[in-house]
Amino acid sequence: MLHLDAKSTPDLRSSTWYKSATRWTQLTLVEDDPIRFDPEYWIDIFKRTHSNATCLSAGGYIAYYPSKVPYHYVSKHLGDTDPFGQLVDGARQLGMHVMARVDPHAIHQDAADAHPEWVMVDKDGAPMRHWAFSDVWVTCAYSDYNFKFMPDVLREITANYDIDAIFANRWQGHGICYCEACKSNFKAASGHDLPRSSDSEDPSWRAWNDWRRDVLTRLVVEWDAVMKAIKPHTSFIPNMGGVSLMDFDQEIIKTYCPFLCVDDQGRRGTEPVWMSGRNGKRMRATFPDRPAVLITSIGPEEVYRWKDSVTLGPEIEAWTNSGTVHGMLPWFTKFNGVVPDQRWVQPIIDSFHLQEKLEPLVLSTQPDAEIAILDPTTSLRHHDMWSRKEAESHELGFYHALVEARLPFEMVSDAQMTPERLDQFKVLVLCNSTCLSDEQVDMLKGFVARGGSLVAAFETGTRQADNSPRATPALADLLGYRVTSPARGPVKNTYVSLNGEHPINQGYDGAERIIGGTHLMGVEALNGAEQPFLYVPDFPDLPMEEVYPREEPRGAAVIARQHEGGGRTVYIPWNIGATFWQVLAGDHGRLIANSVHWALGKRVDVEVEAKGVIDIALRKSEDRLVVLVNNLTNPMMMKGPIREVFPIGPITLSIAIPQGRSVDQVRLGSTGESMRHQSAGGRVTVTLAELATLDAIQIDWS
Fold it and tell me: Which residues form the Beta-galactosidase trimerisation domain (predicted)?
């Protein structure tokens, strides 16, 4: 068991402490916990789960220690106890790392009376009571509450307790605040009045996003400095997700955040279970060398917020596994120290013990793939949290299609593109990268000139980085088209027709056409470009007697080009990703997979033959390849929660042997036992007889 020991672990209480914080337990206390919960129970949970790090409620909205900071509300049940301190001491005695949790998003009446300037104000000028608990007030994240009051809280916790970091929840604010300070500060910084809506075409909205990013970035820097002035090894760790990365200057994150916490605690609605793995890829897309932790709740994550509940064990394990298979570290969170429902405990123990077994393989290798999706942060920054969901649907559709096709892939942030980063891949997928800067466009063109391949769709490159429209799409000449009509939609009853023999339109035996998209751009292919699919001109969807095509197919619906440098490009001028995400038509999944296979121009390095849905991740070192195989096969894969595990097998993998190497040994990651394998034709074949949830195949090269 990998368990920390204060005497033998060199990075305990050092600036690199986070490197050995790999399995986290979080306990979020409620106000009456000081008189109801059993701290020793939780210290035993640390032991049973083999956790080596913990995050514990300390202060902010409620202090769980005897705070002396004025207006820092202390639990009315605290008495002469110190539950935070007791848990810290218990964890440290086990050699664990400790992070204190604060939540600054609300204040009680006495603080609001003394400091009304700390309270958030809505667009009508009214101070905002909390939406879920009207006895308290929502704070303005850009006010002196965060910049003067909270630093005193951080100083007190850092000075008085043996901690490595402070973690903040709900610290970024809740949209636009219209208090007098925000009005004047924003006006002085931007020259604009505060926006009244989140319209991405509104200059004041774009300016507010930039101003907010600057303010929150400064907050990270100042809170971190407050802590380091007392204990140099400590850090402020902001809670964030893939979306939150857009809220900050990324150079500041590199400097001040040694690791990243993704607060995406579980599935909502019809989200697929691979969504937690996507979080890992998105974090790595922006910060490829930064550890990232996935926070998983033991309860369901729905809009109705049953926060003091327990979901089923297989769902907890599936969400955790899908994150860790793509490099995230496991962290579970329990709200309320009292445990009336024990059903989560054993699944967490089982999951953490599996992660512990696979951990040496994961931590000693780096992610590897031939294919990457471009994360369009330049485009998504112009959306608010609601419109962003629709904007991301293009990428989600491509993501799901590649999972179904069992193609290992990574993600690359367009904000962190470099020629060196792009050259790690053979195919880059631009699902709908609407906004691209001239510099980004030049890098993409250079990538193709050096032999890389692109698969692009819909309105990619139609706007500048600032969201202003381009007269001509930036990559049109490279992708081999010119625009004949702008995007239109939504439209119904559209089709695209197979055109001749081409690898991209294979696998549709018996079909002359397949369904099309719901938003279409009219394009014409340039000379030398192939057109595997053509648009079928519109025809009515009612009356039913009128549902038939009037004209022959015309106008390119897919354009394929081969380039002098050896690269290939595919352009799909309609919203195939978003349509596949909404409709999940198998023909669209095949078209995406065919396009990527053709763009790759070779046999994929790792082929998987099996029944079921399998998510594959590759990791490598100089002498080793690790293939992580995650079983997603379940009737609840896209509508949770998962109720039971459906084992699959056999799973046969054919893996390319690197040039100049041979196979030394093949082992099963969870047990270390040797696996039978065969080598022929430059590839090694190995079969996993049965897979319940997650395992790894370790191949060592001689």
Answer: 390-500
Q: What is the pLDDT of residue 631?
A: 98
pLDDT given at position 241: 57
Examine the pLDDT at 271 and tell me if it is beyond 80. Answer: yes
Assess whether the previous peptide bond of 490 is cis (omega < 30° from 0).
yes
**What is the set of domains in the chain, with CATH numbers?**
17-104+141-176+212-360 (3.20.20.80), 371-600 (3.40.50.880), 606-701 (2.60.40.1180)
- Report CA-CA distances (Å) from 329 to 58, 238, 276, 374, 692: 23, 16, 11, 23, 21
Token digits of residue 158: 């850092």
Q: What is the DSSP string of 521-559?
A: EEEEEPTT-EEEEEEEPP---SSGGG-S--S---SEEEE
Amino acid identity at 171: W
- Other Cβ atoms within 10 Å of 352 Cβ, number: 24
| Token pair of 287 as six digits | 């910060």
Strands (E), 395-480: 409-413, 427-430, 453-457
Q: Using alpha carbons only, how large is the chain's radius of gyration in Å? A: 27
Nearest to 95 by CA among 15, 164, 159: 164
Cβ pair 97, 18 in contact under 8 A = yes
Q: In this structure, are residues 641 and 333 in contact, taking their beta carbons and an 8 Å threshold?
A: no
Question: Which two structure tokens, joined as six digits, stand for 66?
Answer: 């005897």
pTM check: above 0.70: yes
From 390, 431, 26, select the one nearest 237 (Cα to Cα): 26
Q: Where are the alpha helices (DSSP H) in 10-104?
A: 33-36, 39-48, 83-93
Q: What is the dihedral of CA 366, 370, 373, 375, to 10 degrees?
A: 40
Q: What is the pLDDT of residue 245?
A: 61
Cβ of 541: how many Cβ atoms within 10 Å?
Answer: 12
Start-end of H helices in 287-344: 313-324
Strands 97-103 and 53-60: parallel
pLDDT for 200 beyond 60: yes
Q: Is residue 314 helix, strand or coil?
A: helix
| Inter-axis angle of helices 180-190 and 203-228, nearest 10 | 110
Per the listing, tokens 């210290």 go with: 43
The CA distance from 565 to 478, in Å, is 12
With beta carbons less than 8 A apart as the criterion, state whether 495 and 539 touch.
no
Name the DSSP letter for residue 416. Answer: G
Which tens digit of pLDDT belongs to each residue from 522-556?
999 999 899 999 999 999 999 999 999 999 999 99
Look at residue 427 and tell me whether its pLDDT is greater than 70: yes
Handedness of CA 681, 686, 687, 691 (dihedral sign): negative
* Cβ(332)–Cβ(348) below 8 Å: yes
**CB atoms near residue 659 (< 10 Å):** 6
* SS3 state of residue 465: coil
Amino acid (one-letter) located at 198: S
Q: How confident is the model at residue 322 (pLDDT cuts 50, 70, 90)?
A: very high
Is-contact 428 447, C-beta < 8 A? yes
Question: Among residues 653, 664, 636, 640, which one has the least CA distance to residue 691?
Answer: 653
Distances from the Cα of 210 to the Cαs of 146, 200, 248, in angstroms?
Answer: 19, 12, 9
CB-based burial label for 14 (10 Å; 0-12, 13-18, 19+): middle
Other beta carbons within 10 Å of 460: 29
Nearest-CA neighbor of 377 among 327, 427, 436, 428?
A: 436
Cα 696 from Cα 666, distance rounded (Å): 10
**Residues β-bridged to residue 435:** 463
d(CA 507, CA 511): 9
Measure the CA–CA gap between 237 and 219, rounded to whole angstroms. Answer: 11
